[in-house]
Amino acid sequence: MNRKITITINTICSKLLWVCFLSVFTFQINAQQFTQHGVGNGLSQPKEFDYADIDGDGFTDIIVPEFSGNSISVLYGTGNISNYTTITYGPLLVGGSIVKPWTAVSLDIDADGDLDIVFSNYANSTSANDGIYWIENLGNRSFGSLQFLYELNRCRHISKVNYDADPEYELLVLGDSNDPINVRVLNVVGGTVSTLLQRTANRRPLHGLFTDIANVGNLDLVLSKFGRGNETDGSTDSTNGVQTLNGPSYNFGISLISNMPTTSAGTRKTVAGDFNEDGNTDFIAVNAAGSTSSLKYYGQGGIGEGTILFSSDGSKNMVSLTSGDYDNDGVLDIAVVDNATDEILLYKNTAVDGVASGAIAFNAPTVLSSTVIDPNWIESVDLDNDGDLDLIVSSNNGGGAGSGNITVFENDTITLGSEEFSIEANSVKVYPNPTATALNVTSNETIIQIRIFNVLGKEILKTTSKVIDVSQLNQGIYLIEIEGDNNQMIIKRFVKN
Predict the structure, then answer these.
(1) Nearest CA to 91 among 115, 121, 113, 111?
(2) Sign of the CA dihedral 442, 444, 449, 455?
(3) Is 156 left (phi over 0), alpha (psi -120 to 50) or beta?
(4) How many angstroms separate the CA atoms of 442 and 423, rounded?
(5) Which of 89, 155, 95, 171 is nearest to 120 (CA)?
(6) Which tens digits make up the pLDDT trace of 402-419?
(7) Measured CA angle at 123 (ends 380, 292), to 5 deg
(8) pTM, whole model, 2 decimals?
(9) Residue 359 — φ and ψ, nearest 5°?
(10) Which whole-number Å values give the CA distances from 151 to 127, 163, 221, in the listed order?
């Protein structure tokens, strides 16, 4: 029986789908284009947002900190990428004083099985109110009162990380200051906080990520830093840029991407990945401050530092970037926010899937939009579960046609049509996605069997249960095949954290 079905394809899944499933399935892949939708109109200075299925309905939601609005808003997914239901929680007060949310993440703080909202309060002062707060998910899209979690001066960036060996997330917390101990990794279990890592990073760490730099099984922390000043912990480097805390000792000392030491410019965000298919982890960062604005890279394996595709007059002000395989050719591309020109730029990688290259190079950028006024943050995620990566951009001031304070760019590389499925696509939901522990499958129709495959096409699990324990799976991307009556089936993708 030959079934025609369009399914999820991502960077590391593309080889699996073409090699292992080509004889069974056909794919509908189009020439790439992005459709722009303004979905967050009227939000007040949204900053560093998060995305997750926070209400458990199978659709991806966008969790937005409103810096000037002193609130958290959630754009609840409806199954239509151009249409969200927005609910605002706030204004949020601490002792009668308003808070200034900068970064919001979704995390199960109280260990009750649902995602709460955690955010950093960045009052940009020595106020004791600076730090991390959370509101409890009460179900039915309602949240409890504001609760204090952790104090940190000028607490700006927080993110979910997998730091230790357990399947649960930890919090990476950065203080936008030169204070002692402004880098922390916190373990939060049932609302109780313990410190797993603490270090000092001068020059204002604004963003961090964990990755295995040397591919030896140890997680390394990569920091994007902005400002001037000498490092501590034995480092004599006085330039700005991206530095690493090398595992397992986590000492400062490697400047991967640096600016000229005469400027107060620095990096605001860094992405990591094998951009030239040579098996090594590389880094690309935005380097934003007027005449020094650029994209910088550091290629492992002796490639070193370089600069990619920038204007000669330095007029650009690139403040955020994200990476992903947007055209499903097996290699990582990047998308960049330019705050000076209001452009959202897509840089397609010139590398070839599986072919090692000594260079890190991208084609000239494609301008996806110039109508998002004052954009400030960008992320990649498959919002509509059609197998390609979409983009989300936050903006201080909204913009023109198709723009809002939150703007999504719908990737049209893969078309997913419900008429192509034996089981109706919208009748089957797989959530939460990503997940670290349990995966839920719901359907309006009878489910006979569920199978999970890894990226090599090997069947990992077979079950008839609609609640699947995936805690023992390795981190990565998997395919889940859901079989209904009369051999009807649908395949979806999920990510195991």
Answers:
(1) 121
(2) negative
(3) alpha
(4) 12
(5) 155
(6) 888 999 999 988 654 433
(7) 55
(8) 0.78
(9) -110, 155
(10) 10, 21, 22
